[in-house]
Amino acid sequence: MDTNDRGMIDIERFDLEPDRPLFHGSVEHLDTSRQALRDPNNKLKIVQALIGNSLSPRLKQSMPEIGSSLCSWPQLASGVMLGGAATAHVCRRIFLNDDCPSGRFYVDLADIIKA
Prior knowledge:
By secondary structure, this protein is mainly alpha-helical. The protein has one domain. Helices cover 40% and strands 7% of the residues. The chain has a two-stranded antiparallel sheet with strand order 1-2. It is globular and about 45 Å long. It starts with 7 loop residues before the first strand and ends with a helix.
């Protein structure tokens, strides 16, 4: 999964670990029903549980605006392209049977290239 925030790539190898909990077990304690997902406050709790404390400051500011002043998750084309490239890299490694473990990884350009 590519979150498009801070270049986060989440890899869950269910082919190697069939009993692995979804999202590394981070949402097991939350109500993720369709009804619960309609509530913007609950949506924020779920996203925060999925991403953890690693949300970028800009996404933290944007989350409460989704559904009111923002129609969807904020994304820039550059972030989408970075996520696509990272996801393609992970898929290639899996298809070639290279070592590619479950885990959470970041390609955070703002962290890599500092002002």
